[in-house]
């Protein structure tokens, strides 16, 4: 089930984020509880919940068009959860008036292949990661639901 995260979900979001095998934070202290709180309040972190547990989440930043987070727990990656969460994040950005979204990911990862397959364009590098962009002009509200 897709829903908006709440402050009470932050510990679970951090657990999902730390469970991945790729795109591991080199310095986990750089992402703080205050970062999560900001996204819960402005515009929101979206979670995928199954049987009462959060198994994935996405967050979009309407200030600059960045997909700040998209993570899915190991073991449930190939079931379309990431695609639904990414679509919801894109709709969130589009609703904020963003016309072109961007994100970064580590090279040679499943995430890189996922974004390429989803139509994201590799446009360069940023902070030692691959930089991808995608026009949001073709995103429709019903793609997220």
Structure description:
This protein has 145 residues and is an alpha+beta fold. The protein has helices at residues 10-19, 33-41, 81-95, 110-117, and strands spanning 2-4, 45-50, 53-61, 66-72, 100-105, 121-126, 129-135. The chain has a 4-stranded antiparallel sheet with strand order 1-2-3-4, with helices on both faces. The chain has a 3-stranded antiparallel sheet with strand order 5-7-6. The radius of gyration is 14 Å and the shape is globular.
Question: Gist?
Answer:
By secondary structure, the chain is α+β, with helices and mostly antiparallel strands. It contains 4 helices and 7 strands, in the order βααβββαβαββ. A hairpin with a 2-residue loop joins β2 (45-50) and β3.
Show unreliable segments.
141-145
CATH topology: Aminopeptidase
Oligomer: single chain
Strand-and-helix sequence, N→C?
Answer: EHHEEEHEHEE
Task: Report the principal-axis shape.
Answer: globular
* Strand arrangement in the largest pleated sheet: 1-2-3-4
Number of individual domains: 1
**Level-2 CATH architecture:** 3-Layer(aba) Sandwich
For the biggest sheet, the summary is:
4 strands, antiparallel
Q: What is the overall pLDDT average?
A: 89
CATH top level is Alpha Beta
Query: Could you give the distance between the termini?
Result: 10 Å
Q: How many strands in all?
A: 7
Amount of beta strand: 25-35%
> What fraction, in percent, of the residue positions are helical?
25-40%
CATH homologous superfamily identity? Gcn5-related N-acetyltransferase (GNAT)
Integer-rounded radius of gyration = 14 Å
Q: Which structural category do the helix and sheet elements fall into? A: alpha+beta
């Amino acid at each position: 089930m897709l829903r908006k995260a709440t402050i009470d979900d932050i510990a679970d979001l951090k657990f999902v984020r730390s469970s991945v095998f790729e795109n591991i934070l080199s310095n986990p202290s750089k992402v703080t509880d205050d970062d999560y709180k900001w996204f819960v309040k402005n515009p929101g972190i979206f979670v995928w919940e199954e049987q009462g547990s959060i198994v994935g989440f996405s967050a979009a930043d309407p200030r600059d068009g960045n997909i700040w987070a998209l993570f899915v727990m190991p073991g449930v990656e190939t079931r379309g959860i990431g695609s639904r969460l990414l679509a919801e994040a894109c709709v969130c950005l589009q609703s904020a008036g963003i016309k072109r979204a961007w994100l970064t990911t580590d090279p040679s990862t499943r995430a890189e292949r996922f974004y390429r397959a989803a139509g994201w364009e590799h446009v360069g590098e940023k902070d030692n990661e691959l930089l991808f962009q995608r026009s949001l002009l073709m995103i429709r509200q019903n793609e997220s639901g």
